[in-house]
Amino acid sequence: MKKLVSLILAATMALSMVACGNKTNSLTEPSSNNEAKSDTNSSAEIALVTDVGTIDDKSFNQGSWEGVVKFAEEKGITHKYYQPQEKSNEAITSAIELAIKGGAKTVVCPGYLFEVPVYNMQEKYPDIKFIIVDGTPQDGNRENPTFKVADNTESIYFAEEQAGFLAGYSAVIEGYRNLGFMGGIAVPAVIRYGYGFIQGAEYAGNELGLAPGEITMNYTYVGDFDASPDHTAKAAAWYNEGVEIIFGCGGGVGNSVMKAAETAGKKVIGVDVDQSVESETVITSAMKNLQNAVYKTLTAIYDGTFSGGKTVSLGADTNDVLLPMETSKFETFTQEQYDAIYAKIANKEIELKDEKAAEKPDGLGSKLVSVNFQ
Q1: pTM value?
Q2: In which domain, by residue range, is 146 found?
Q3: Can you spell out the DSSP letters for 206-232?
Q4: What does the pLDDT look like over 88-101, one tens digit per residue?
Q5: Could you say which of 135, 221, 290, 359 would form a disulfide bridge with 186 (CB–CB 3.0 to 4.6 Å)?
Q6: Does one domain contain both 225 and 82?
Q7: Do 172 and 126 share a structural domain?
Q8: Across the chain, how many H-helices and E-strands are there?
Q9: Same domain, 202 and 250
């Protein structure tokens, strides 16, 4: 647990730091192929800036972009995305500036990397609306950051621990006993997914009357959100050691896990969006309803009900975390069981610990699940 706490503290410090990446500071605008989904003119009223990753990442960027596309196409509004080529505040700020120069009246910013850029841009452009997902605008001071959500900004968070809980619960009810959690960077959203995963597995184990230690879990953060041979090798090693299913929680990290699962004949749980189309090994996905969240906020902006200056938290009570039951490949876990456990979460009958649990003396803990933090 000490190692986990260290990772969390390191991740918190990293929120405003420049990560390693492509050493150019240029920006990539949509190619003509990508613009088939958006307006082909140079101007666009709604813009999304990706968190360096691609718009078709089958994860966070894509889910948010689909909300933009759905709303804009329904209303006949021009829309476009911009992709910085470097993980730095400067590059992301330049992308936002370029979007505004291109006519954007609303800028959607998915991810914690936008905290410092949006903090500055919301003050510089008070007439522009900003939607930041999974982040709160802050000044970048590592020791004592100042947070501020201006009147032209809305900060959206999700109860990822609830989505993770559903994933862990369903996996154990389905019959899996040797689980794995492979997160990207130990940022709060990823930690919440992981902590929820443990708690869901424990809750299901208690329901089934399993003995302490009968459920095991390998748990780690790999330090990035990229697909890499190293991540595939680590997942393969876990599968060879007996892990039956891995929750791949970290963008491209999940693709690495899927590759290993395909070779080993094992299973994967996807993240953020429905990743069932990515691999036959994906039995379900712990989803955030990114499309719906962005769509609803854009609707509020355009119908005049946008209040701004606030942080909203979305979870089961708003139907914004879920498992995609229609595409899930469960053989034991039923829709009825899903509906029952979902209702308990939505009604607050089940209280879950989030990433702040690591700050407490007893930490997360689990009396039933034997967790091997790596």
Answers
A1: 0.84
A2: 2-159+291-316
A3: HHHTPPTTSEEEEEEE-SSS---HHHH
A4: 999 999 999 999 99
A5: 221
A6: no
A7: no
A8: 10, 14
A9: yes
